[in-house]
Design a protein that fits this description.
- The complex is a heterodimer of chains A (about 220) and B (about 170).
- Chain A is about 65% helix and about 5% strand.
- Chain A has helices at about 30-35, 45-65, 65-80, 95-120, 140-155, 160-170, 175-185, 190-215, and strands spanning about 15-20, 25.
- Chain B is mostly helical and about 170 residues long.
- Chain B contains 7 helices and no strands.
- Mean pLDDT of chain B is about 75; it is low at about 130-150.
- Classes of the chains: A mainly alpha (about 220), B mainly alpha (about 170).
- Chains A and B meet through α2, α3, α5, α6 and α8 of A and α1, α3 and α4 of B.
């Protein structure tokens, strides 16, 4: 059902959030959404600036490739803009945006799989397991950070799609279980089960990173 | 006392510190006597901590400007834009029944034509071609009767003359 014009107004009760202490405040995301709907396209840039870090990071974890991540993140915001009149406010703008990003990333990955099948085996396939010697020992090494991120992304790529999406949204993006359930359109119990299984599957793949982190904390 | 299968549903939240106090006490009672679940909890905690500290990907320079530039002429409005009419889904939805109707009609129509029209007899067509000149000066209507046996040279001779000729 389409949202009424009155509900789009800033002072509508739907746009007001109450905290436990009885104080209320206006949801800043919905304020900007209202402005964009009213014709102020520039207000959409404020939403982009607010969420670009999260969506780019999410796309990076989903696609393992910075160029693809940029494309996925761009496409996410463009689709969100075009579908803004369909946003009903049933969920938060953040989880709605993540849902779009998930769909865009999945489409992108499917196309990439199709292209790689047509192209044949690639010499760049990194199917080797991560080794402890792959990780630089220096704590402040930027290169080490990139390697660690790439190692985590590679491990995540080995999970099934539903496990990967759930674990990235929860442990990397920091969404709570309810938000993950909204973003993936799944029951909360299913989300918890997926996250449990994903962490269990990742353990052997990320053991060198876990050991390396433990060693660095001990000062080794 | 909870079983290991039942405890699994609590381990994910216990691993990231979001399990409520009451359920944590239930979990602790089970963990006190189950090494396997203690190891599973350790796994949950380790991986959650590692992933939460994954280095953040940086936003490319000019990202928001490129997004705004690529929004194009698609203003947000409550009414569908003309671009929506180009949606392949819309076209598929409306044209599928039309295409189906046309196919059925064509099938029925061809079936009727195939039954009513017999094979074309070319020899009879040649026989029916008659060249009849109305005057010496003008060819007028030319009637030529010919059979399959006539050669092209003979036909050319007839065409070169202006007088009426009937050839069988």
């Amino acid at each position: 059902m389409a949202i009424s014009t009155e509900a789009l107004l800033i002072n509508h009760p739907m746009n007001t959030v109450c905290n436990g202490g009885g104080d209320s405040f206006v949801n800043p995301d919905l304020t900007l959404v209202n402005e964009v709907r009213a014709g102020n396209v520039e207000a959409f840039e404020a939403l982009v600036l607010r969420y670009q870090g999260k969506i780019v990071n999410y796309a990076s974890a989903m696609t393992r490739n910075s160029s693809d991540a940029d494309d996925v993140a761009q496409e996410t915001f463009i689709r969100a803009f075009r579908a803004l009149n369909q946003f009903r406010g049933d969920s938060s703008f953040k989880t709605w945006l993540y849902r779009i990003a998930t769909n865009v990333a999945r489409t992108h990955l499917r196309q990439r799989v199709k292209q790689s099948r047509l192209a044949g085996p690639s010499l760049d396939d990194d199917t080797q397991a991560l080794r402890a010697s792959d990780i630089p020992s220096s704590k402040t090494n930027i290169e080490g950070a990139v390697i660690a991120r790439d190692a985590i992304n590679s491990a995540l790529a080995k999970l099934s799609d539903e496990l990967r999406v759930a674990i990235i949204l929860r442990d990397i993006e920091g969404l709570d279980y309810r938000e993950v359930a909204e973003a993936t359109n799944s029951p909360i119990g299913t989300v918890m089960s997926r996250i449990f299984r994903a962490r269990r599957a990742l353990r052997p793949l990320l053991q060198p990173l876990v050991k390396g982190k433990a060693a660095s904390e001990r000062g080794e | 006392m909870m079983t290991c299968e039942q405890i699994e549903s609590l381990l994910a939240r216990a691993g990231d510190g979001t399990l409520d106090k009451a359920r944590h006490e239930q979990l602790n009672k089970h963990l006190a006597r189950c090494a396997m679940c203690r190891d599973l909890l350790k796994c949950q905690t380790e991986i959650q901590e590692l992933l939460s500290r994954r280095p953040v990907a940086s936003v490319p320079l000019g990202f928001s400007k490129r997004v705004m530039a690529n929004l194009g002429s698609n203003p947000v409005s409550g009414e569908p834009s003309w671009m929506d009419t180009l949606s392949w889904r819309t076209w598929t939805f409306w044209l599928t029944p039309v295409a189906a109707t046309l196919l059925v009609t064509a099938f029925l129509g061809l079936g009727q034509d195939a039954e009513s029209v017999g094979a074309i007899d070319f020899s009879s067509l040649v026989e029916a071609w008659v060249i009849v000149p109305e005057s010496e000066a003008a060819l007028g209507e030319v009637t030529l009767l010919s059979t399959e046996d006539e050669t092209s040279a003979f036909l050319l001779d007839i065409l070169r003359t202006s007088e009426a000729a009937v050839v069988r």
